[in-house]
Amino acid sequence: MSEPTSTIYILYNAKASILGKLNYACRKITAGSEDSPCAACDLTHGGLKLDESAEWKQTKKQIGGASVKQLHKDELTPEVRKFLDSNSLRWPMILGQDSKGGPIKLLIDASALQPVSHDHSAFLSLLDKRAAEEAVPIHVKDRLLLPVVPFVPNALLPNHITFIAFVVGLLACVAATSPRFSSLAVYLWLLNRLLDNLDGVLARSRDIASELGGFLDLLSDFIVYSLIPICVAYGQYAANGPDWFTASSFLAITILEATFHVNNFVLFYIAAVSATKQEGELTSLTMKPALIEGLESGLIFTAMFIWPEYVVVMSWAMSLGVVIGTVQRVAALIRVLSNMESVKREKDS
Question: Which CATH superfamily, name and number, covers 145-239?
């Protein structure tokens, strides 16, 4: 089952009926450029348009942890109507309600909505701030890198950035093999992380996300991730001589690499079976949080670049975390597959 989400209500200062839309069109045409009759309509439709704007569709995707409901005056739910009846508020407005069905809160009133109705980045920032203040849990995706997107040339596609990130990641690994370039390796790795996140943000903002892009992104990440411990360890060998390369250091690196491959096999197997069986429980297994996720991996790899002398200790620690997460997923997978077999036998009998 999916986790419960908060609800964001966008209330239009117009009715959904044909007469309501005609009334809004007349008000829009006769209103001044600085006095729109419905800032919410400007936000989601870009003015006098029947369809939602492409920009709003992308903006809506960036509101995580919440379902977005867009309601006209004649489409209000009883709960929303009750809230409005007990409060004297000017239309349009943005309301919010937490995932537990708590009281509805006013997030953005008409006066605050007007200035951000044509600036979706500003709207997301304001919504995120007000939702936090009113204890309505949401999270804005791509918040940090979204302001960078307008400065990316149109000729530069997400897959181009993925390739650049991959090359930079490889250069970071090469730099890590030499003690003279250990500082450069850190900066190259951080640049790789920035670019690795930017390609996805760019794809989503331009609405050109693709399966190919996702595959190339994962492939390049896995290659770089696999090389980091090896290259950092080689850098320590180059700095300290053969005495550093003991059985313990060899085992630490090889076992870490082995845990990567086993964990990735389990994840890909779950994904492959989920695609063929269309089993909700299987799909949910890939989303179960593990001890070592993307953020934790990034932090540990960053620590390896900054403090390469501790690469053996960090490799052992990371191996343990990956093993724990893999065992948890395997145990859950066995349970789900056993249940599926039981259901299949019952149907066949």
Answer: CDP-alcohol phosphotransferase transmembrane (TM) domain (1.20.120.1760)
